[in-house]
Amino acid sequence: MKRSTAVKGVTTLASLLLAESASAEYRLNMTQGVTPISHDVYDLHMTILWVCVAIGIVVFGAMFYAVYKHRKSKGAVAANFHESTFAEFAWTIVPILILVSMAIPATKTLLAMDDLSDSDMTIKVTGIQWKWKYDYLDDGISFISSLAPEHNQARQRDSGIDVTKIENYLLEVDHPVVVPVGKKIRFLTTANDVIHSWWVPALGWKKDAIPGFINEMWARIDKPGVYRGQCAELCGKDHGFMPIVVVAKNESDYRDWVAMKKQEQADALASADRAWSKDELMKKGAQVYATSCAACHQANGQGLPGAFPALAGSALVKGPVEGHIDRVMNGKQGTAMAAFAGLLSDVEIAAVITYERNSFGNDTGDVVQPATIKAARK
Ligand SMILES: [Cu+2]
Question: How far is the CA of 336 from the centre of ligand 1 (A)?
């Protein structure tokens, strides 16, 4: 009985590994990337690698040759070149020359990475547990990018979804960062809660996103395409579920996207002024809940005992609506509950509160209108 279970385990593991190797892309070397900086970084990496290889061959070659040629069994007697001025000079000067010859291209690359002059546009990237917010400072666009809903569903425990059938599993978002090709884009990184790190390997760099600090970096992507990355700083429970997708488009497609996004934002703003039906709010609220709340409070509203409170039957959720609004908008100091006032729109906050008050067995019957949230902001 035990034996057959063990055999079964091994076969499952083997088939899992096979499936893994079929879907994952293994590469030994760094990616060459798609920006001038990433090419510089790659070239620098290769130069240094070959310098190291040459040093390795010379040092180990001399060592193995000496060990073999001057072995004791052949009656070798150790030479004594203690206090040899030539040797002292040689093993000081040669490494200095090698280090200087490596420092010159390295410094050039570092200076180029740091040169943010003449950038064409700026995107502010804010890390939030566990999503990214993007503000296009020149075009006035702003949105939150989260793990794509299909992926988010599949990764839930006991989801029953075969993740090997999902393309780019855990590397897909609902709203990608769209950028124009051939433009020097300045990225400012910061964070709302803990330290995150914005990393897209094809751009050739990784930048920490730290609360209270603004780091900067730039990229000029030369060819249109989709470039994927992830948060690269362990930032909490869902660190592995905040991917990054950069879509590079040519200038005119980018302009179309900007116009589309602006229209979307204007529509969203206008829709905050009308009265919403309960059905509309519940539908919208379910979406907002899945992307912004379910990571902690869980899809079924049960929370995680000891870490995240349940919303099902919660005194706060079933109590006066003002308290609920205050908690969602302003968060709770000293806990993981973030202030969503700056992250979600009036409609989104109204919808998610309506949803929480009428789901998971909560049956307050309350409907919170966007206008109420708008008023609460003042
Ligand atoms: Cu993170």
Answer: 14
**Distance (Å, whole) CA 236 – CA 78:** 58
36-114 CATH pick, 1.10.760, 1.10.150, 1.10.287, 3.40.50? 1.10.287
Instruction: Quote the ligand 1 centre to 240 CA distance (angstroms).
Output: 8
| Listed range (3-7, 23-27, 200-204, 285-289) with the worst mean pLDDT | 3-7
Query: Which pLDDT tens digit goes with each residue over 149-194?
Result: 889 888 888 888 888 888 999 999 999 999 999 999 999 999 999 9
What residues have their beta carbon closer than 5 A to ion ligand 1? Answer: 196, 231, 235
CA of 230 to the centre of ligand 1 (A): 8
Neighbouring C-beta atoms of residue 206, cutoff 10 Å: 17
The answer on pLDDT for 14 being more than 70 is no
d(CA 5, CA 167): 32
Q: What is the reported pLDDT for 271? A: 86
**What is the whole-number distance in angstroms between the Cα of residue 145 and the centre of ligand 1?**
12
| Rounded distance between C-alpha atoms, residue 305 and residue 340, angstroms | 22
Task: Name the token pair of 183.
Answer: 């433009």
Residue 1 is predicted with a pLDDT of: 41
Q: Please, what CATH class does the domain formed by 121-269 belong to?
A: mainly beta
Task: Judge: domain 275-376, CATH 1.20.1060.10.
Answer: no
